[in-house]
């Protein structure tokens, strides 16, 4: 299918059939350089990994797997009741050195290529903003990408993901950590590894301090996210 937002195709053999309708987008970084290394890996049958798209730091959009197929990008993961995240999601890899090779800001060209692509995907598949997530959100015990420098705030300005709550109506709404973890699970996270789940939440919602500690600010942010969702203000 012709897509004016896609610059070229480098089709991967690593896909199979979906068993769920598309309801999510998962953003990753490649943690490989140059980008050709990542593309080769995602097209290697022995690697058994892939994504639907890869966006280079220069802003080139490369399609690897058709959207109607199940790409193998999320691995063992979970989000809002879905254990087969691959079946329910579209995976977008961002060409980036990652934490292993020198973590840095994402480029403007890459972001400017992501916005229209993501906008088209979200509209076409009616994906809730709350389901545009990072790999670390769906696999908190294993992954930290796209990491604390990913510009979620800029993406939220285009209404393509949830914004960080700015007005926190209650300072410390949970009586204890157990109630916080239950609320975190209700929001969507796998809390099997509680410390890692809190780190993932912080990486997404309070990236200036990631320590896995359940503090008053973290509690208040989560409470506000749930409150806004229950009021129908976020989807």
CATH C-level class of the largest domain: Alpha Beta
| SS-based class | alpha/beta
What share of residues is helical? 25-40%
Mean pLDDT: 96
Distance between the termini: 29 Å
Write down the overall geometry: globular
Can you name the CATH architecture of the largest domain? 3-Layer(aba) Sandwich
Description:
- The chain is α/β, with parallel strands linked by helices.
- The chain folds into two domains: 8-157, 3-Layer(aba) Sandwich (Lysozyme-like); 177-230, no CATH class.
- Helix content is 33%, strand content 12%.
- The chain has helices at 35-42, 85-88, 108-125, 135-138, 152-157, 177-187, 194-205, 216-230; strands at 8-9, 15-17, 24-29, 53-55, 61-63, 69-71, 89-94, 132-134.
- The strands form two sheets. The protein has a six-stranded mixed beta sheet with strand order 1-5-4-7-3-8. Strands 2-6 form a two-stranded antiparallel sheet.
- Helix 6 (177-187) packs across helix 8.
What's the SSE blueprint?
Blueprint: E1 8-9, E2 15-17, E3 24-29, H1 35-42, E4 53-55, E5 61-63, E6 69-71, H2 85-88, E7 89-94, H3 108-125, E8 132-134, H4 135-138, H5 152-157, H6 177-187, H7 194-205, H8 216-230
Parallel strand pairs: 1-5, 3-7, 3-8, 4-7
Antiparallel strand pairs: 2-6, 4-5
Helix pairs in contact: 6-8
Summarize this structure as a short list of keywords or feature phrases.
two-stranded antiparallel sheet; alpha/beta; 8 helices; 8 strands
Give a short overview.
The chain is α/β, with parallel strands linked by helices.
